[in-house]
């Protein structure tokens, strides 16, 4: 294993190579830097390795991370040889996890309401009605492991019909802690005689599928809500690998749902969109053109600087930028953090008290939820910032 000193030396050498000529941050130079980081200087955390499990020192806190190496395909096939995986729901996760399970050779069937959008999507993906595509109840009756990948609102709505079918010996699987954790609101009170486990991929179902096809695996959280057989955790790890995970991070249902609802409303989606809009609007109000405002707000972020953060961290991104950019960014970080922290605290409270759950259940249980949500997406699509973005993207070489 490379020593920390060596890694530091290697890293600072690469920083010098990249930072010195890059006196101005431009999309092109920063992009080259991003590629160099991936090729030359991965940061390797301290780790102790056993087969199939790594103990990683995450900034001073040691955590076990499970890896797929311990679950080759033959072992998965043997482990699940007597199981029928009934995957209920075929949205983003159903699609990604279902296709990966099928490609892994496992006995998986899909259960969705007949003739809905998902039913048709499943047929498009090669699932065959009556063979491996069924109505929800029929799929559950055939399954030994019931993978509930309905929308969170639908999990609550369908629970009175689903619960009596979860008989002793079956396993119940979720990809979000939402339904059992907020059981007072969702009414999802699981039967006491079955294993209840969670595998929550940390990304969209589309990414679950793409990474699997590229031979990589997505990071997933795993957790156990109820262990009746003594095998619940092992089953969760095996299923995580089977649906296409590379590394599995152990958590609890509660921590998974709190962090997930918080994160997607914050930096992952809502917060970042709010920040983009605020910056763009100020630039436009102060006389900048749409292309300039978009390039300086979104394009450079997503195409140049965020990949640098993803590749090797925030300091790495700062180091790849000009001294002028760096100075201002470091100074203004404090103001943004102090201004935003109370908002993040308010958000966490809103998640933990169930306010966000109520909102989600109410909105997404509306029979017209797809129509209403499509109207909202249309509104976003039509914002000037995103129309400008479409024009900027049209100039990319791959679109010409
Ligand atoms: N998407 C992600 O990035 C992501 C990431 C990690 C975890 N998760 C979790 O994974 C689970 C599934 O999420 P998802 O995003 O894949 O799916 P989703 O879009 O939230 O849900 C879609 C599925 O729910 C079905 N559905 C909706 N209302 C229904 C009802 N009243 N009765 C029966 N079926 C109904 C839809 O069927 P129809 O087409 O027939 O309406 C569709 O198959 C959730 O627990 C979610 O929190 C999602």
TrEMBL record:
Residues 61-251 form the KARI N-terminal Rossmann domain. This is Ketol-acid reductoisomerase, mitochondrial. Residues 252-399 form the KARI C-terminal knotted domain. It comes from the Eukaryota. Belongs to the ketol-acid reductoisomerase family. Gene3D superfamilies: N-(1-d-carboxylethyl)-l-norvaline Dehydrogenase, domain 2, NAD(P)-binding Rossmann-like Domain. Its cofactor is Mg(2+). Pathway: Amino-acid biosynthesis; L-isoleucine biosynthesis; L-isoleucine from 2-oxobutanoate: step 2/4; Amino-acid biosynthesis; L-valine biosynthesis; L-valine from pyruvate: step 2/4. Its EC number is 1.1.1.86.
């Amino acid at each position: 294993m490379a020593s920390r000193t060596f890694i530091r030396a290697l890293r600072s050498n690469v920083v010098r190579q990249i930072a010195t000529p890059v006196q101005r941050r431009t999309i092109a130079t920063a992009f080259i830097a991003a590629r160099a980081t991936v090729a030359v200087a991965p940061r390797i955390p301290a780790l102790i390795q056993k087969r199939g499990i790594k103990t990683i020192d995450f900034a001073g806190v040691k955590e076990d991370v499970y890896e797929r190496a311990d679950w080759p395909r033959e072992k998965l096939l043997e482990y699940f040889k007597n199981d029928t995986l009934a995957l209920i729901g075929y949205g983003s996760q159903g699609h990604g996890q279902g296709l990966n399970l099928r490609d892994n050779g496992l006995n998986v069937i899909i259960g969705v309401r007949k003739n809905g959008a998902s039913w048709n999507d499943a047929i498009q993906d090669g699932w065959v009605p009556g063979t491996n595509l069924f109505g929800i109840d029929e799929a559950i009756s055939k399954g030994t492991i019931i993978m509930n990948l309905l929308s969170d609102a639908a999990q609550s709505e369908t629970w009175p019909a689903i619960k009596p079918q979860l008989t002793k010996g079956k396993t119940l699987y979720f990809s979000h802690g939402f339904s059992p954790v907020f059981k007072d609101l969702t009414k999802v009170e699981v039967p006491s005689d079955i294993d209840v486990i969670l595998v929550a991929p940390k990304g969209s179902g589309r990414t679950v599928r793409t990474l699997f096809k590229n031979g990589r695996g997505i990071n997933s959280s795993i957790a156990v809500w109820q262990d009746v057989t003594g095998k619940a955790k092992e089953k969760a790890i095996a299923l995580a690998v089977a649906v296409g995970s590379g590394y599995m991070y152990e958590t609890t249902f509660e921590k998974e749902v709190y962090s997930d609802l918080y994160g997607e409303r914050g930096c992952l989606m809502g917060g970042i969109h709010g920040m983009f809009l605020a910056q763009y609007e100020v630039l436009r109000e102060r006389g900048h053109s749409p292309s300039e405002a978009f390039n300086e707000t979104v394009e450079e972020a997503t195409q140049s600087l965020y990949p640098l953060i993803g590749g090797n961290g925030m300091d790495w991104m700062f180091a790849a930028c000009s001294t002028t950019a760096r100075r201002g960014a470091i100074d203004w970080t404090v103001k943004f953090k102090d201004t935003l922290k109370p908002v993040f605290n308010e958000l966490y409270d809103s998640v933990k008290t169930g306010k966000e759950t109520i909102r989600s259940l109410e909105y997404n249980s509306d029979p017209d939820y797809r129509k209403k949500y499509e109207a909202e997406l249309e509104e976003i699509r039509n914002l000037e910032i995103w129309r400008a973005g479409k024009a900027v993207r049209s100039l990319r070489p791959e679109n010409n």
